[in-house]
Amino acid sequence: MTRAKTLPDLWLLSDERNDAKLEWALATLPRGNAFVFRHYHLREKARRERFDALAPIARAGEHLVILSGSAELAQAWGADGIYGPPSKLGKAPGLLRLATVHDASEIALANRAGLDGMFLSPAFPTRSHPGGGCLGINQFRDLAAMALMPVIALGGMTAGRARDLDWPRWAAIDGLS
């Protein structure tokens, strides 16, 4: 089986904005997808407690649980993988490594690192970066074509925008919660 077939299509990302809805979102996310725990707004102890509350709900839905953090932290917390900039995703035996990328140079870094997947963003305008630019359909596709691994569309994504983009793998903060 190739790597492309092992990554799920839907990815729910955590954020301070969707925290109150995460239990519901994880419980209603179709089985066998993925959850990326970020929660940068919390201090270490509270972040761990929130992870420990959400991870079992994700696992009950047969979702991958990915942690934004180091490989050591992900292993200690029992995550399936790590998420972050390609330059910070070193060796991580037994873990998926998923990069956040925004341009051709970051895609090249991810390709050289032999990562398992990448989140390419922002595909569309997003509340995370109000007034910021976005890739749009054509630039998203041009950049995605450079990737040597599965690409997950991120940024302003909803089911409708995934259809507009005609892209099977997508992630959202608000769009899935």
Protein architecture, described:
It is a single chain. The protein has helices at residues 3-6, 22-28, 44-60, 71-77, 104-113, 136-144, 159-165; strands spanning 10-13, 34-37, 64-68, 81-84, 96-101, 117-120, 151-153, 170-172. Strand 3 (64-68), helix 4 and strand 4 form a beta-alpha-beta unit. It has one domain: TIM Barrel. The termini are far apart. Mean pLDDT is 91; it is low at 1-5. 34% of the residues lie in helices and 19% in strands.
CATH architecture: Alpha-Beta Barrel
Q: Could you please say which CATH topology applies here? A: TIM Barrel
Strand content: 15-25%
Average pLDDT level: 91
The count of DSSP E runs of length 2 or more, i.e. the number of strands, is 8
Placed side by side, the strands forming the largest sheet appear as 7-6-5-4-3-2-1-8
- Separation, N- and C-terminal Cα atoms: 31 Å
The coarse silhouette is globular
Class of secondary structure makeup? alpha/beta
- CATH homolog superfamily: Aldolase class I
Total domains: 1
Spans where pLDDT lies below 50 across 5 or more residues: 1-5
Main sheet summary:
8 strands, parallel
Q: Can you tell me the CATH class?
A: Alpha Beta
| Gyration radius over CA | 15 Å
Q: Give the helix proportion (percent range).
A: 25-40%
Order of helices and strands: HEHEHEHEEHEHEHE
Number of helices: 7
